[in-house]
Amino acid sequence: MNLIANYVDFSAHQCLPAVLRWCDTAGIYPLSLLDAETRAQLLETWSRYSVMRSIQMEVHVRGHQWERLLANSCTGTMVRVQPMITRLGRTSYTVRNEVTSSSLPLATVETVMVQLDESLSKSVPLSCSEQLKSILKPQSTATGIRCPVAGKRPSACFSWGCEVRPSDCDLLGHMNNASYITLVEDARRAAGLTFDVQVASIEYLLQAKAFELLQIALWRDQPSAQGQSVIGYEMKGEQGLVARGSLVSFLEAKL
């Protein structure tokens, strides 16, 4: 699916939430390969009862290069998002999105989706799993995104508070997946952690609701095996821990 890349953050660099929104927009594209009846059934089920369990994303173009790319046109740069289903489980599946512009790789996003019951509280077997096997494109585990897992939150770390806006929420009534990353990005900017992010992860634990008060904690973790900076974060709401994950910087060249 072709889209216009007209979303950037205030530094004019890559905007992680924007990449996730592009992937959301293209997410149902694989269903075009199915027959009309199966496609309609899955669209109904997925739009009402499917939620994201986790996301891992890797950005292939760092800040200053991203800025030049998006400056090519006053109306934004054309990007192509190619989603594919790479794993089918009993109650979950994985969608991998390849984001490119003029054949230049921009980002890769892997999302694990879970199908819930009508109460949105319990996972249930996938609908039309047999039909989905016809469009399954398994990937080697060696090609998957690997984001370092941050260690335990220290007792003293930076904390930033905010409130979930109604406009942050989707049709299921909880905060949209991209909005989580938006708030984490705002928090790390407030903490002065302004490096370009190469790899990021988020694990969704609870569903944050409109007007819920959130507290986002961030801390510097041990560097990656390659020497990259690693930031761990946790997002806590009124019901408990709603999300956690890591942000990893690009590897700096050593002279």
TrEMBL record:
Residues 161-203 form the Acyl-ACP thioesterase-like C-terminal domain. CDD domains: 4HBT (cd00586). It comes from the Eukaryota. Pfam families: Acyl-ACP_TE_C (PF20791). This is Acyl-ACP thioesterase-like C-terminal domain-containing protein.
